[in-house]
Amino acid sequence: MAEVTTEEKKETQPGTGSLSVDALEAEDVLAGAEEWSSTETWLVLGSFIAAIIALFIGLLVVPTSVLH
Amino acid sequence: MAQYPERKWYSGMLSTEDWWAVWIAVGFFMISLLNIWGIDLVGWMTYPTKWVFNPPEGGKGAISQAFYALGKKYSVSAKGFYKGLGWWSVIWSYVIFGTALTIGAAFMKWNVKRFVGGFTIIYFLTIAIWFIGHHAFIAATKVNMHKYGLNFALNLGGGGSFILALIVGLIIGNFFKGFAKYLSEAAKPEWYIKTAIVTLGVKLGYLPIKLSAFSQKLGKQAADLTFDLFVAGAAATVVAYLIFWPGVYVISRKIFKLPRKTAAVLGSGISICGVSAAVATGGAVRAKPVVSIMVSALVVVWAVIELIILPGFFTHVWPGTKDPLVAGASMGMAVKTDGADAAAGELLDEFMRTKIEIETNGAVKWPEGIITASAVMTKVWIDMFIGIWAFVLALVWVYKFERRPGERVPASEVWHRFPKFVIGYFFCWFFLLAIYFGPGQGGAPEAMPFLKTVKAGAVPVEKGMRKLFFMLTFLSLGIITDFKKLKEAQFGKMVWVYFVALFGFIIPVAIIIGYLFHHGMTLPNIAQYMK
User: Fold this and answer.
1) Among A8, B241, B285, B416, which residue has the fewest nearby CB atoms (within 10 Å)?
2) Res B494: pLDDT
3) What sign results for the dihedral spanned by CA atoms B49, B51, B55, B59?
4) What is the pLDDT of residues B437-479, one digit of tens each?
5) B111-117 contacts: CB < 8 A, separation 24 or more?
6) Across the A/B interface, how many CB contacts are shorter than 8 Å?
C-alpha cells in the first residue's frame, strides 16, 4: 500500500524544477519503451530540417562563417 | 491540478540563484562605476601574483606580495590606501563578498549558519589553492620563469590554480563525504559561475577600453571581435541545438530502447545545458522527477570529465593556437552546465595564451578573456534556447503524445525558463560599450583620462571578482561531484547513452559547427604594448 502511495506521489510530481525530491529509484524509467510513432518522426525530422535551414541562412548571413 | 502554476513575471527575483547572480555582480559593477566621480569602493578586491620562496636579486615573486588589492595598480583616487592592504585584501574580500553572498543565501532561505560556515572554509581553501597555484614553478612560463630565478616551470599560467582547485574539490567530494556534505550548503558552482558570467559581461565591455589604452584602432578591433562572437555564437548555437536534441533522442530511443520521456530528458540534458535543461524538459514532458535527478547527476559528472579532457585536447591536439575561437565555441557547445563550460573556457583561455606566448617566444600575446568569452557566448545562447525548447516539447507532449484535455501551456513559460543571469551579462557588456562609444568617444586620446576612471572600477570586477568566482566554482564543482554515481547499477544504461551521445555525436558536431562559424577569426596581438 505504501509503495503505491509513493508511486502515485511520484506520478503527480512531475519535473518541478526542484532536484530535492528524495525518490531516487530507476525502476521503470529505463524500461518499457513505447513503439516509435509518427509524431516522433515529425519532431526529429522537423528539428533536423530547421537545423539545415538555420545553417544555410547562418552561413550566408554571419560574416565570420567559412563562406565569407 | 494545474500543471503550470500561475506565476508573476517577477516571481523568483529575490529567491533564485539566477537573480542573485545578477544582483550581486551588477551591484558590484554599478558600485565600481563610482570611480567616474572619484570614489573607489572596489579597489580592495584581492588578486594573486606569481611568487617563489627565494626571489632573485632584483627579480620578482616575494611572498609578501603574493596577494594584493587591485586598487594598488588601477585605482585613480585611492591608490595609496589600497597599496597598503597587501594580504589584508584577502580578508576584505572575504568579509565583503561573504556578506553579499550571505544576504543572497538568506533571501533564498538557505541555512544561513551552515552557509557562512561552509563559505568560510571554501573561501579560505580557495585562497590557499590560489596561492599554491601561483607558485612560479606552476604558473610561470618559459618566457618569464627567469624573472623568478627558475630554469624550469610547468607553463600552466593561471590554469594551474583552476586544475588544483578542481582536484582538491574532487578529493573532498569523493573521499571526505561527511565534510563535503557539510560544505554542500555553500558549494554552489552554478551560483558562483553565473555570478562570474555576469562579470564576464564587464570583461567584454571593458576589452575595447583596455585595448584603446594601447591604440584606438586596437580598441575598435576588440569591440568588433566581441560583436562577431555574439553573432557567430548565436547562429552556431541554434544550428547545433537543433541537431543535438533529435540526434540524442534517436540514439536513446533506437539504439538504447529508452521510453519517450526518459529519452526527451536525456536529449536535453546531454544536448543543452545539463541540469537546468533536464529539469525544464522533465517539467515540460511530465517525466518522473527521478529522471531529471538521474540525468542531472550524470550531467555534472560527465561535465567534469569533459572539463578535464577538452581544454588540453583543443590546445595541444586540435585546433591548437591556429583556431583558438573555434576551440572556444566548440567547447561552449560541447560542455554541459554553465559552471563546467565557463570553467573549461577559462582553462582553455589560460592554456592557449600560454601556448602562443611560448610558441612565438613572447612575440604574440593575446588579451585574456576573449577565448573564455567565445565558450560562454555559445552557452548563453543555449541557455536562452532552453525555455523555447521546453515550451515546444510541452506543446508536443500535451497536444500530441498525451492529448491532455483542457490543459493549456502558457507562453509565459518561456520567460520563466529564461536564464536570468544572461540579462546581467548583456547589461554589463552593453552598459560599458555605451560608455566606450558615448562619453569614451570610441577610445579617442582626449577621452583617455575619463576611460581610465572607468577602468579603475571595471578591472577589480572583471579580473579580481571574476577569477575569484571561477576559483570558487572549480572547488565547489569538485566538492559536489561524486564519481561513485557512475558505478551505480541503476545508472548503467544512461551512462552508456551519455558516453555514446557525447563522444560519438555531440562533440564532433560541436567541433564542425564551431569551425563553420568561427574558422579564421583572429585575436589581437598586444605583445608590442606589454612590458
Assistant:
1) A8
2) 83
3) negative
4) 999 998 888 999 999 999 999 999 999 999 999 899 989 988 9
5) B111/B185, B114/B182, B114/B185, B114/B186, B115/B185, B115/B186, B116/B186, B117/B182, B117/B185, B117/B186
6) 144
Q: Are residues B453 and B76 in contact, defined by beta-carbon separation less than 8 angstroms?
A: yes
Instruction: Report the gap between the CA of A5 and the closest CA in chain B (Å).
Output: 14
Domain ranges of chain B: 17-529
Q: How far is CA B193 from the centre of its chain?
A: 5
Task: Show residues of chain B in contact with A60, CB under 8 Å.
Answer: none
Calpha distance B437→B329 (Å, rounded): 27
Per-residue confidence (pLDDT) for residue B461, from 0 to 100: 96
Task: Give this complex's ipTM.
Answer: 0.75
Task: Name residues of chain A where pLDDT drops below 70.
Answer: 1-28
Distance CA B274, CA B265 (A): 10
**Per-window interface: A 8-37 vs B, CB < 8 A:** 10-19, 21, 23-34, 36-37
Q: Do B254 and A36 touch (CB under 8 A)?
A: yes
Cell digits of residue A5: 502511495
User: CA-to-CA distance for B339 and B296, rounded, in angstroms?
Assistant: 13
Given A11, A25, A44, which is nearest B250 (Cβ)? A44
Q: Which pTM was predicted?
A: 0.77
